[in-house]
Amino acid sequence: MTESALLCWCRAGFEPELAAELNERAAIAGHPGYARTQRNSGYVEFIVEDANALSRALPWSQLIFARQKLVRIADLSDLNPADRITPMLAALDALGGSGLNVSMFGELLVEHPDSDEGKQLSGLARSFGNALRPALRKAGWLSKTDDARRPRLHVAFVAGDHAMLALSDPLDSSPWPLGIPRLRMHPDAPSRSALKLEEALLTFLDADERQRRVRDNMQAADLGAAPGGWTWVLMRNGMMVTSVDNGPLKQELIDSGRVDHLRADGFTWQPRRTLDWMVCDMVESPARVAERMATWFRENWCRQAIFNLKLPMKKRWEETRICLEAFEHQAHRPLIVRARQLYHDREEITVFATPK
């Protein structure tokens, strides 16, 4: 019998951080369990008595180190490469009496961990999905066309002969396979860091929020801007940007007429009036950055912000929790805070904040 578990994708190498986060959050929610993972595997299994109840208690939007949150419904090992479909259909049929309240899935996603070993399964995942979809539809498990109102079925290959079946709620999970938005580096972008801010806007703001919060002629500041990747994203979204950095910006940004480059220290500069946006990707200790970000909200210097916290090599979940708690406390006002380790992040997390 398959153990009840959450299955969460993450950045390879950050499994201990995700495991620690799930352990703490699950215990606080009253659903204690234990995490099972291997370093650099790209995923964590969290074994718990009732994975469905835990999933409801831990909204995906609140998880920081999880790219995707799934409820595992079957663990199939020793699969025969000549016929992997039959045992999967049998596993789904056997779930009728296990409390699974799904008559039909709205979409099929065949995935693999985003790790060195997992990427070797990408070809299998693509070809197997093409074979499994018609079999699922014939058996009545998959709608004839993608239906966003129904749960999604995930087939997670962790080896050629080992796959896990899992489901996700479209309203409580990442919309992208593996939780990774596919963004392309624009040839005009000054640096690859532009992808981090583009992903943050897609991840933290839904379509309605982006329409309301990201508009032409908004006033923004970019702290630690050089060479200008985040400034470029703000400018492309129609904003007027004050770029604060003692280092040089790409000349094309200054020539745009929408960017004012101030050679100053992002930790000491302050605006003369409240700005619509402040963004910050300065390389500094996370505690110092969190404190400065709190000052911006305490002094009402911005209406919303996106910033990065560069994490230490050890105790990264603990440091994350401490810095976020300190940031909210030092802001001296109620805030909406969303944080995640994005796909384009490395040893850092990205935070969105705005007053409630």
UniProtKB/TrEMBL annotation:
<keyword id="KW-0489">Methyltransferase</keyword>
<dbReference type="InterPro" id="IPR002877">
    <property type="entry name" value="RNA_MeTrfase_FtsJ_dom"/>
</dbReference>
<dbReference type="InterPro" id="IPR040739">
    <property type="entry name" value="RlmM_FDX"/>
</dbReference>
<dbReference type="Pfam" id="PF21239">
    <property type="entry name" value="RLMM_N"/>
</dbReference>
<keyword id="KW-0808">Transferase</keyword>
<keyword id="KW-0698">rRNA processing</keyword>
<dbReference type="Pfam" id="PF18125">
    <property type="entry name" value="RlmM_FDX"/>
</dbReference>
<comment type="function">
    <text>Catalyzes the 2'-O-methylation at nucleotide C2498 in 23S rRNA.</text>
</comment>
<feature type="domain" description="RlmM ferredoxin-like">
    <location>
        <begin position="5"/>
        <end position="70"/>
    </location>
</feature>
<feature type="binding site">
    <location>
        <position position="265"/>
    </location>
    <ligand>
        <name>S-adenosyl-L-methionine</name>
    </ligand>
</feature>
<dbReference type="GO" id="GO:0008757">
    <property type="term" value="F:S-adenosylmethionine-dependent methyltransferase activity"/>
</dbReference>
<dbReference type="InterPro" id="IPR011224">
    <property type="entry name" value="rRNA_MeTrfase_M"/>
</dbReference>
<feature type="binding site">
    <location>
        <position position="245"/>
    </location>
    <ligand>
        <name>S-adenosyl-L-methionine</name>
    </ligand>
</feature>
<keyword id="KW-0963">Cytoplasm</keyword>
<feature type="binding site">
    <location>
        <position position="281"/>
    </location>
    <ligand>
        <name>S-adenosyl-L-methionine</name>
    </ligand>
</feature>
<dbReference type="Pfam" id="PF01728">
    <property type="entry name" value="FtsJ"/>
</dbReference>
<protein>
    <recommendedName>
        <fullName>Ribosomal RNA large subunit methyltransferase M</fullName>
        <ecNumber>2.1.1.186</ecNumber>
    </recommendedName>
</protein>
<feature type="domain" description="Ribosomal RNA large subunit methyltransferase M THUMP-like">
    <location>
        <begin position="83"/>
        <end position="168"/>
    </location>
</feature>
<keyword id="KW-0949">S-adenosyl-L-methionine</keyword>
<dbReference type="GO" id="GO:0032259">
    <property type="term" value="P:methylation"/>
</dbReference>
<dbReference type="InterPro" id="IPR048646">
    <property type="entry name" value="RlmM_THUMP-like"/>
</dbReference>
<dbReference type="InterPro" id="IPR029063">
    <property type="entry name" value="SAM-dependent_MTases_sf"/>
</dbReference>
<feature type="active site" description="Proton acceptor">
    <location>
        <position position="310"/>
    </location>
</feature>
<feature type="binding site">
    <location>
        <position position="193"/>
    </location>
    <ligand>
        <name>S-adenosyl-L-methionine</name>
    </ligand>
</feature>
<dbReference type="GO" id="GO:0006364">
    <property type="term" value="P:rRNA processing"/>
</dbReference>
<feature type="domain" description="Ribosomal RNA methyltransferase FtsJ">
    <location>
        <begin position="191"/>
        <end position="284"/>
    </location>
</feature>
<comment type="similarity">
    <text>Belongs to the class I-like SAM-binding methyltransferase superfamily. RNA methyltransferase RlmE family. RlmM subfamily.</text>
</comment>
<dbReference type="GO" id="GO:0005737">
    <property type="term" value="C:cytoplasm"/>
</dbReference>
<comment type="subunit">
    <text>Monomer.</text>
</comment>
<feature type="binding site">
    <location>
        <begin position="226"/>
        <end position="229"/>
    </location>
    <ligand>
        <name>S-adenosyl-L-methionine</name>
    </ligand>
</feature>
